[in-house]
Amino acid sequence: MMLLGPDGAWVVVPSSRVAAGGSGDLAVTRDGAQTIIRGALTASHELTAAGYAGLLACGMIGAFVATDGAAASAPASSSRWEARHILAVLRSRSVTPDRGSHVLDVCAGQGRLSLHLLEAGYLLDAIDLSEEALDRLRHEAAGRGLSTRLSTFVTDAANFARPDHYAFAYCAANSLRCLGSRSRVQRHLRMVHRSLTAGGGYLVHVGLSTRPGSATWYGADGRRVDWTVEEIDTRTAETIERVRVTGADSAAAAHDLRVRVLLHGADLAAMAEAAGFTIGALWEEDFTRVAEYELKTAAGNMWVLLEK
Ligand SMILES: C[S@@+](CC[C@H](N)C(=O)[O-])C[C@H]1O[C@@H](n2cnc3c(N)ncnc32)[C@H](O)[C@@H]1O
Q: What residue stretches are annotated with the Methyltransferase domain (predicted)?
């Protein structure tokens, strides 16, 4: 579940443990006990300061930041959390900038996470179908003096490979599902496997199941996002999703109908193994470690580390 924090940044909490009550309360379940955080949400589902503090106290947010040695009360920024997680996984594998290791950001977009990796000193290749997004990334990197470590490629992730080039790759924000079909995800995994050096890792953030349904959330600028899964074709494993963004003035800002591929944990595990990977580790969206064997039954958004 994503909630808007009091500082305007998104906060990601595990939907399996945090539930919203009717009157702005949040119910948090941990170790079999339930805690109610009163007045945690505003009417538009944004976190109040009390809600934020309550989630911190329950260890639902900031847990990763805390175990990483930094202050648990650091402002919650979903991008920074994700980047810290990715950097911690890199370090745990001894992939450090001083070794000249190359890292691949798959479906990098405007480089929400690439910029953190560049700032940490890594040599980074960012790939995306969108030339405009990569232009923005290059522009931002240039402004921060990071251009010399960045290469960008406008390309389809299902067809991109640089054999034996990367010590590590990652794909955030559930972007694998953008590839459109299971056969293209399979092909992509083969390409990444071929692109990694021996012992390399591929960290993937992926939503492992989707049911027809809908959700609404609000952005920091007052924009409202209505998201609906209209249809799932069980034969092709495609979902038809509709996204409607309405501005603060109620004018439609964007309207998008898209097809994404549905992935279950068991499919992902089978595809990864067919591509030559082993499953290295598994985390929930809040970076809580989960046993690897649970991938086959897991649901919701997870981080999966695939190892060559
Ligand atoms: C949800 S965004 C994620 C952006 C970024 N990784 C982040 O975490 O903010 C998905 C990105 O995938 C890109 N994309 C979609 N299909 C792709 C494909 N077949 N090959 C490469 N990029 C693709 C889109 O252009 C978009 O920038």
A: 103-200
For 240-254, the pLDDT digits (tens) are 667 677 777 777 666
Residue 11 CA to ligand 1 center (angstroms) comes to 21
Candidates 217, 193, 213, 215; CA nearest to 204 is 193
How far is Cα 132 from Cα 121, in angstroms, rounded to an integer?
24
157 pocket-lining for ligand 1 (C-beta < 6 Å): yes
Say which residue the tokens 């050096």 belong to: 197
Which residue's C-alpha comes closest to atom 16 of ligand 1?
178
What CATH code is assigned to 80-178+191-207+295-307? 3.40.50.150
Q: What is the pTM of this model?
A: 0.72
Q: Where are the domains of the chain?
A: 2-67, 80-178+191-207+295-307, 213-261
- Residue 58 and residue 30 in contact, taking contact as beta carbons nearer than 8 Å: yes
Percentage of the chain exceeding pLDDT 90: 36
Q: Supply the pLDDT for residue 69.
A: 24
- Joined together, the tokens standing for residue 212 give 């027809």
Q: What is the spatial distance between Cα 161 and Cα 214, in angstroms, rounded to a whole number?
A: 36
